[in-house]
User: What shape does this take?
Amino acid sequence: MLDIAILGLLMERDHHGYELRVQLRDRLGLSSNVSFGSIYPALARLERHGSVETVIAADGRLTALSTGSLSGERATLRSRRSAPGLGRRGRKVYRITERGRQEFARLLADPSTVDNGRNFSLRMALARYLTPALRVTLLDRRRGALLERLAELRAGTQVSDLDSYARAVMEHGARAIEFEIAWVDELLAHERINDEQDSYAGDAG
Amino acid sequence: MLDIAILGLLMERDHHGYELRVQLRDRLGLSSNVSFGSIYPALARLERHGSVETVIAADGRLTALSTGSLSGERATLRSRRSAPGLGRRGRKVYRITERGRQEFARLLADPSTVDNGRNFSLRMALARYLTPALRVTLLDRRRGALLERLAELRAGTQVSDLDSYARAVMEHGARAIEFEIAWVDELLAHERINDEQDSYAGDAG
DNA sequence: GGTCGATTATATCACGTCGATATATCGACG
DNA sequence: CGTCGATATATCGACGTGATATAATCGACC
Assistant: This one.
C-alpha cells in the first residue's frame, strides 16, 4: 500500500521520510499521518528492491526540496563537528529509479486489490499516471466491488433482527456505499466526456 | 479492535470461530469477512486473559450444547437437510465469562480511540450496552475528530496545487466526512429525543 | 544570551490485522 | 465413487500502527 503511494510521490520529485508523511496526507489523502513505523520500513524495502535510491543531503537546508529533480548544486558545506556531514539530523533524500518507475506503473495498473477503499482512493489520486482505458477499468472494478458489498449488506441478517443502534450503523453503511457509487459514476462520466473530446480532436470519424 | 467486537457478540450468546466471522459482518458491520488470522488469535488472547472460556462440542453433530439462554427455546431442531449452520469438524464454542463482561464494559465506554471510523462504528453498533450519557460522550468525541480531520483536509495543500484526480479524491474525502458528521448529528438528535421521552415517561414504568 | 518548547527528522519495538494457505469434514451432485 | 463447495480450525509471513527513543534546529520569551 505504502509502496505505491511513496513511489507515486517520488515520481514527481525527491523527498525525505518526514516530508513524505505530510505529502501522503495532503496530496494523496491518506488518513491523518501515516506512522513512521510504516514509512521507514517501506523506504528500506523499496531501496532493497532497487526501486529507490538515497541521495544524502550534504548540507542542512534546502536539499532537493525546492528544485525537484535538478540537483547540480554542490552546496556550501557547513562545518559539522560530529558524524558524517549530515545536516540537521541526517536527512536522507530518496529518489525513484528506473526500476522504481516500472514497478510503480505495474502496481498502479493492477486492479486486483481495489475492494479496499484506501487502495482505490490512492490509485485514483494517482490516476493521471494511468491511461484512460486503465482508469475506466479501475473505476469499473471499484463499482463492482461496491455493488457486491451493498448486496451483501442487504442480504445479511434481516433488519428486524437488530437493535436500533446496530440497525443505524448498517443503514449508514449502506448509504455510505451508495454515496461512493455515486462518486465513482461521476468519475466514469468524466472519463467518457474526455473520451468524446479526444475523439473530436484526434479522430475525425 | 476485534476483542471488543467478539465480546460484544458473545454478550448475546455463545459462538464458535467460524460463526463469529459471519456475525461480525452481518451484525456489527465489520467490512466483509474479517480474516481468521485475526479471529483465532483474538480468541486465544481472550481466553488467555480469562475473558472467554471454551465449551467444546465433543460430538460433531447438532449438540444443542446446552447454553443458548436466548437461543435455547428456538434451537430445538430444524429440518436437517439443507439447513445451513451446524458444523462438523471439532467445533470450539466460546462463552463470555464474568471477567469478560467487565472487560467489555470497560472497552466499550473508553472513548479514547474513536478517531478511527471502524472503532466508532463498532462501538455504535454495540451502543445499546452503553448508558445514554456515555453514548453522547462517544458521539461528541467522534464529531470532534471528524471536524478536526475536515479542517486538516481543508488546510492541506491548496487545491490548485493538485491535478484533477487528486483534487477529486480530496473533495470526495471532505464530502464523505461531512456525510458522516450529518449522521452523527442525527444520532445525537435521537439521543436528545430519547432523553425527553424519558423525562416524560420516566416514572410511568 | 540562555533555556524551553515546537518542529523537523530518523529509527525501532511490540502488537494486531490481513491474505494466503493447509487441513479436515460433510452434503450434494453426477 | 469422486469431487466440489460450504463449514470449520489453525498458522504463516508481510505489513501498518502507536508508542517511544534520540537528536538537531528554530523561534520565543525573559
